[in-house]
Amino acid sequence: MSVGGGPRIYCPASLAEGAVVTLPETAARHVARALRLGPGDPVRIFDGDGQEHAAELVAGGPGVRARIGPPLAPIPEPGLGITLSQGISRGERMDFVVQNAPELGVSRIVPVRTARSVVRLDPARGRRRQEHWRAVAASACEQCGRSVLPRVDPPRQLSDLLA
Q1: How big is the CA angle at 1 (ends 29 and 144), to the nearest 5 degrees?
Q2: I need a labelling partner for 20 at 20 to 30 A (CA). Which of 86, 113, 119, 151 fits?
Q3: Strand 65-71 relative to strand 20-22, pairing
């Protein structure tokens, strides 16, 4: 197994050297279809909590699995806990903000509904958007090298945030 090569993949599983983990569906699809990787190819897997390991793909197809290798030294996290409170914007603007926040060292993202917000989210849609923004943040961490995902809070009113 080559140490530290290949693309970075977010896998929210317990990463222990020698274990075999099944990649999440979206990551598996990306690895198999977009990157065209198969058994024997090296990847780097991180858990979002600061652990990163070299790994080797051991099975392809619908259930892509990887054997976890030795731990790798992650990029150090910023010493400050930076919280980004962002008014919810429509279209791809909010995704753009969430995508760039990990690169800037943000550790927590708080989507905020304001009195003049155009976007209206009921609780169910708010949860779906929160999950979407978590996935955007994970993808950004794969690209920028961070091993700790920023926390994405559920959308809240500005008055609640300030209280």
Answers
A1: 55
A2: 151
A3: antiparallel
